[in-house]
Amino acid sequence: TCPQCGGKAQAAAPLKWSPEDHRANIRRQLNNVESPEWSQTIPTLPSLEEMRSGAGEQEEE
């Protein structure tokens, strides 16, 4: 359920590539995923507690 509205949450999207992807090594090299800088570009979601506190603040407005 959604922590903001209590509604039904949608399931996450499936993996973009199969775990058995034979070209995965090539894709990782092209995207340079082994570099330390790459991990800094991945977006992050707020924690569940942050989302809950944000929902409470929005309701008060």
Protein described:
This protein is mainly alpha-helical and 61 residues long. The protein is built from three helices and no strands. The protein has helices at 24-31, 36-40, 48-60.
Provide a brief overview of the structure.
The protein is mainly α and 61 residues long. The chain contains three helices and no strands.
In percent, how helical is the residue content? 40-55%
Q: How can the largest sheet be summarized?
A: none
User: In angstroms, what separates the terminal alpha carbons?
Assistant: 22 Å
Q: Which value, in Å, is the CA radius of gyration? A: 18 Å
What is the quaternary state of this protein?
A: single chain
* Beta strand count: 0
- Count of separate DSSP helical elements: 3
- Taking all residues together, what is the mean pLDDT? 81
**Range of strand content:** under 5%
Describe the global form.
elongated
Structural class, by secondary structure, is mainly alpha
Runs in which pLDDT lies below 50 for 5 or more consecutive residues are: none
Order of helices and strands: HHH
